Every structure is written in C-alpha cells, then in structure tokens.
Amino acid sequence: MEKVHSDITALGSDIISGGIDGTPLSHYYQAIAAGPLISPEQLEQLLPLLVSASQRTVLMHYTLAGDLDEATENVEELIHVIREANAADDFRVLIGGDASVSFENNELSAHDLEQGERFGVPIALIILLLLFGAVAATLLPLGMAIVAIAMALAAVGIIGQAFELIFFVTMIITMIGLAVGIDYSLLIVSRFREEMSRGLDKHEAVAKAGDTAGRTVLFSGTTVVIALIGMFIVPVSFFQSLGLGAILVVLTALAATLTLLPALLALLGHRVDFLTIPYLSRFSLRGAQDSEGGFWLAITRAVTRVPVFSILLIGVPMIVLSSFYFGITTGLNDVNSFPESSETKEAFIVFEEEFSFGDVTPAGFLSPAEIVIDGDIGSPQVQGAIARLTQSLAEDPAFPIPPEEAEVNPAGDLALLTLRFPGEVNSRAATEKMGTIRDVHVAEAFEGVPAEVYVGGATAEAADFFNIVDMFTPIVFAFVLGSSFIILMLVFRSIVIPLKAIIMNLLSVGTAYGLLVIVFQHGVGRDFFGFQQAEVIDAWIPLFLFSILFGLSMDYHVFLLSRIRERYDESQDNLQAVAYGLQSTGRMITGAALIMVAVFGAFAAGETIVNQLVGFGLAVAVLLDATLVRSVLVPASMAVLGRGNWYLPSWLRWLPDLRVEAEDG
Question: Which helix (H) or strand (E) holds 92?
C-alpha cells in the first residue's frame, strides 16, 4: 500500500469576505481542481473545507499523487498557483506538508549554495593572492577546484540515473571541492615556484614538485577518501549519498591536481608569476620565506621551552569544550528550523494557531503513523487483533486522537490503520512512543495471529534512522581510526606518531562538537554569528563531521610531520627537526586552512540550519587543527617525547617504509 504525501492549504485571516463560496476563494479552488496534481477521487473531498473556530481561517487537506520525489516535483505547479492567488488583496494562501516542505528546503539549499560560492570564492581568491602575490598563480588553484567540482557533479549526475541520491550531495561536492581543490593545488603551485626560484627549468621544476608535494597531495587525498569510506558502512542511502559525493570530488580534485595542473605549469613556466603585484609579492610564500622562518621559529622555541605547560594551556580548554558534546540533543530538524520568511513554516504556524488537535502538531496531523497489516484481513483472528490494537491505542493517553477506521485493499490481504501522532514527529520523544506502538501495542494485539504488521510513517522512519546511526557510529569510528593508524604507521614507521595524530584529531573534532552544542543549543554567541537556535542537532551531523574532519585534518598533520621526519632522518636532532618542519610549512598550512575556513564559513552563513551546523563545525575544527593543534600541541608533544616519537617495536620493523615527501636537503 503506497504511502501518501499530504499537504494543507491554509487560507486565512480576514480574507474570506465573500464566504467560502466567495469569488476570490472559488477562483483559487477552481485553479487547484483544474491542475493534474490531485486525483479525481480527491476533488470531492476538497469541499466543504474545515473552518477554524475564529472563522478567520479554512483548511483544505488533500493528497498529492505519486511518491515523495514525484510529489515534490509536482507541487511546484501548485505553489505557482498559490503565489498567484497571494497577488490578490482579498486573502492569503499558505501551503505546508511533506512535498511543499521538501520543495522549499531544496530551494533554500540552492540559495545557500549560491551564497556560499558568492562569498567563499572571492575570499579564497584574496587569500591566494596574499600567498602568491601573482594573479596567474592565484587563478590556477581556483581553476582546479572548478574542474574538480564539474567532474564530480557530472559523475553524480550519471550515477544518479541508476541510484537515488539526495539533493544535499550537490552542496557537499561544492563545499568540499572548493576546499580540497584549492588546497591541493596550492601545495603543488607553491612547490613549483620554489623549485623555479632555485634555478631549475620548468620541466625539472614540475617533476620535482610532483615527486615531493605531489606525493604529499596523493597521500593526503587517500587518507581523506579512506575516512569517507566509513560512511558507506552505514546502511542508509543518506550517508552513502554524502560519502559518494565527497569521495568523488576528492578523487577528481586529485586527478586534476596531479595531471592537468602539472601540464599547465609546464606550459606556463615563469609565466606562473604573470601579473605580479609588487607590494603583495614581498609577503607571498616565496617573498616572505625568511620572515616566516623567524616567526615560526620563535613560536617553536617558545612552545618547546615549556612543552608540558603548553600542552596543558591548549589541551585543557579543548577538553573542557569537548565535554559539552555529552550534553548534545540529537534529532532531525524540520520545518520549525526554517527561516522566518519560509512560507511552509508560516503555514504550519497558522495551522497550529487556528486548529486544535490536542497534542497532535501539524506535522503529526499530516505525517501520521501508518500501521500496515499483511494477512487475511477478513479472518476472525486478524479482525480481532485489529480491534484489540485499535482499542489499546485509543485507551493509551500518549495518543490523544484514536486511530482511524482501517482501510482494506480490494484483495482483502492488506489493511492500513492511520494514527495521528502527538508531538514533533522527528523528535526523540516521538520515536520512543513509536517504540511503544511496535513493541507493546502491536506485539500484544497480534501475538499468535497469522499476520505481519509493519509500522511506517515519518516518525517510524526517524526511529529507524536513529537506531541505525546509534548502532553504526562505533563501527565507523573504529574503521576510520584503525585505518588511519595503520597508514600513518607505515608512512612514519612509528606507533607513537599515529597515536598522537589520532588523539589530536579527536580533540579537534570533539572541540567542534562541543562548540556546536554551546553555540546552537545553548545560544552562546549565536546572535553574533547570525545563526538560528537549534532545539536539536541533526543525528547524522556528528558522524558526518567526524568522517570529513578526520580526513581533512590529516592533510596538515601529514604535510607537517613529513617535513619533520625528513629533517630528523638527516640530523637526528628532534627539536631542530620540529622547528624546521614548522617554519617550512607554517605560512602555507595557515593559508590553506584559512581558505577552507573561508569556504566553510561562507556556507555557514546560509539560511538553513543544516548548512549553518555543518559549515560552522567544519570551519571551527579546521581552524583549531591548523593553528592551536599544529603550532602548539604537535611541537610541544614532540619535545616531551623526544626520540620516543619515532618508536617502532622490533617485531614491526618488517613493515614497508612508505615516505611521503623525500626532499633534498
């Protein structure tokens, strides 16, 4: 029995001056009835309409044909009719429901996507211009990011013909593509310019950049992909769509950076510095090399002089912030989290104010629990079980509206019992009540009865989603942490370095989690950032952020540690190697991180709560990881452990030695 997707139209305020059959309203009704959106059987149900007690609002309740995707596409025509009706001064028309909410959510997401590109790209360009001091070199990373995004979107478009993907995947591709596409190209271009300044010709410089920075980019991208593969472990198409989009754009960014970019650099040669800006070039990566060494060397000396104090100074506040994560309230944000200008949100507000259904919210009215009985519906056993279930639900005070009379299909082997659900349908409280329906009411009523009973609807879907996320989160964590440990151990031939990297990355992610709770749920600084209040944080966001952030944070960690390991192998001086690694990568990593923060922050400035949560979480974690963790915790911890950083048990020395960047001294 196909699930239906209901919508409501609230026609309200002092708008019905001509009565229900007044000219303005009848014209609206005729426009709705003339369209192909509603089945002929529904037309007879449109009138008479439900009138509110205040006599100021009427309610038209109807069902759109098709599944949710089809209804979301078809409802656009209905929305146009409604907007035309609102052009008149006689009354105001509002629409709400599964299809219209989904349609408006897609519109809001598309708006946020455009805004993210509009603000994130110019800021990234400014940062690149400050780093390179030349227009040509600045445009190359942005061009690679655009190529990567276009290729990933094309791949998703092809895959989407065979598999259902969520609309949010385009947002993820653009957000991640801009970040990693620019970052990866930044490393290659900066290394190419460095080799050219040493006197190599353009072909030798390309080869050297590929053999050093190119290997770092390849390894960094691989770690990101491995972390993202963890999302495929979760058997939910939502996670798999997000993981697919993110993996595709990372792979296309790698492909563009390691193939197209070297070819362009070989063609450009010294023209990579075309349109050099004299003043800015003094502070670019190449022009400021000496000064950056002094700055980062001073930071390293200050931190390593009192390493334990430095660790406590940064680590303790981050642990405290991370502890707020344990007070997180997860759920699924719905139309209530839409911006105030949202038409569907206004419809639900009018519905709730003008019509009373006890504790049943508008969403609960339109998205009821759907109890499907599969069996011989006409048999006395099944009939008795349905009667017991109906009575049991009617007597339960948790469900103020009793279930409707069961609908039976013509074959008599399927029945549908509809129960208007109390409370917010996606909340944890509602899913607990769903557990009561399944485990108590249905189980007791149908015990020993030859029939299968399934409970569906929005709340049932939310309950199943929460259960799956809770079940698979530890598995994903174990996969990502375990695979990251193995890869880092092979690269750095140490068990201490991978353990420290995992701990520090967890600290960055935990701090981001804690700040999400503090800002969005407790409201600290919310007005300053212009964010919405979030009653809940979407249950999928912590797991998604973990997979993304763990991969991205490894980029900077690997790039820094590869330089440290390289110098340590040459000098066997731990502190000198740390100082060299920090001063040789400091400006570049900071610039790359600022680009990511700018891109993620631009998306966080969007209207939808989901984009605000994801953008803010990503921006905060990357900023913390590339600044406090890299400049304080990494050198301080390496100073404390000394030669112990490179400890590898003798029984593991058979492992292959995979160096990321083998640079000449």
Answer: strand 92-97
